């Protein structure tokens, strides 16, 4: 539970950061939103490769410069809104702000949203390794992780419920990690069309090729992710950890995998269940 001092610090940060974030939101063409560990690093990189070529930026993004094209919705100078190179008219780029934040109407305003979902069992496994091997913020086993309020099932279902309600009545485009993995070209083309961008097939094919998993993993091993200090020799600590759909069975016991789905069925709203249906997971009650 957050201490009184911790709560006061959080409120001060919110009062300091919210006005510039709201200004950025008002200028945004769209948001790219997902629960952590749903595949947004890959999608951000693919889109940044496309826009780098279409805007003739003169460089192929790496895992640092990708933030200059699709910045985080925060005030980090390297990864956030101030890093965006289209701000001063230097490049004709749409402003797509990337966020894991829970839904708040006053922060996201009425802007269109690209919403990325992934099989919750794969999300939980990836989140577990992120917490235990990347951030070293959790030391328990998988059973304990599922019940951990900050990272486990309650955090996942609460996030999805909030955004499912927030997406109702606003322009949005739903993307599943599984469909993106199986059909990256049509998935990316549909995203561009939603953004009002005419997809250029040859350019899109080059962006998809540049964002292949093994290529991105090599880039991460070489230079890491800005703002993160971790052992890049440990495969399980990498952002590019697996690049597969349905690999949860390697790490979750059958009863644990079933529990993830049971919690989703019990705790998710009908709208949130409909979002996850795009992943192909059977969540019918």
UniProtKB/TrEMBL annotation:
Alphabetized InterPro entries for the sequence: P-loop_NTPase (IPR027417), Sulfotransferase_dom (IPR000863)
Record-annotated Sulfotransferase domain positions: 29-266
This protein's UniProt keywords: Transferase
Pfam families (alphabetical): Sulfotransfer_1 (PF00685)
Record SUPFAM superfamilies: P-loop containing nucleoside triphosphate hydrolases
Gene3D superfamilies xrefs: P-loop containing nucleotide triphosphate hydrolases
Family: Belongs to the sulfotransferase 1 family.
Protein's name according to its UniProt entry: Sulfotransferase
Organism: Sphingobium fuliginis (strain ATCC 27551)
């Amino acid at each position: 539970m957050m201490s009184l001092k911790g709560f006061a610090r959080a409120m001060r940060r919110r009062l300091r950061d919210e006005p510039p974030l709201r200004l950025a939101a008002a200028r945004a063409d769209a948001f790219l939103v997902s629960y952590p560990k749903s595949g947004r690093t890959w999608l951000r990189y693919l889109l940044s490769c496309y826009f780098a070529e279409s805007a003739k930026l003169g460089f192929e993004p790496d895992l640092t410069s990708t933030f200059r094209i699709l910045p985080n919705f925060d005030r980090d100078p390297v990864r956030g809104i101030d890093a965006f190179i289209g701000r001063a008219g230097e490049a004709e780029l749409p402003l797509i702000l990337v966020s894991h934040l829970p839904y708040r109407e006053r922060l996201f305003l009425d802007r269109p949203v690209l919403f990325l979902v992934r099989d919750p069992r794969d999300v939980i496994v990836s989140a577990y390794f992120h917490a235990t091997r990347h951030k070293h913020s959790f030391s328990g086993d998988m059973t304990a992780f599922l019940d951990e309020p900050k990272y486990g099932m309650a955090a996942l279902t609460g996030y999805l419920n909030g955004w499912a309600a927030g997406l109702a009545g606003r322009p949005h485009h739903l993307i599943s990690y599984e469909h993106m993995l199986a059909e990256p070209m049509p998935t990316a083309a549909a995203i561009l069309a939603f953004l009002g961008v005419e997809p250029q097939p040859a350019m899109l094919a080059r962006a998809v090729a540049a964002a292949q998993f093994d290529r991105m993993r090599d880039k991460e091993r070489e230079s890491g992710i800005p703002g993160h200090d971790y052992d890049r020799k440990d495969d399980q600590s990498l952002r590019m950890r697996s690049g597969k759909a349905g690999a949860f069975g390697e790490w979750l016991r059958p009863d644990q995998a079933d529990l993830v789905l049971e919690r989703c069925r019990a705790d998710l709203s009908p709208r949130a269940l409909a979002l996850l249906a795009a992943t192909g997971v059977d969540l019918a009650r």
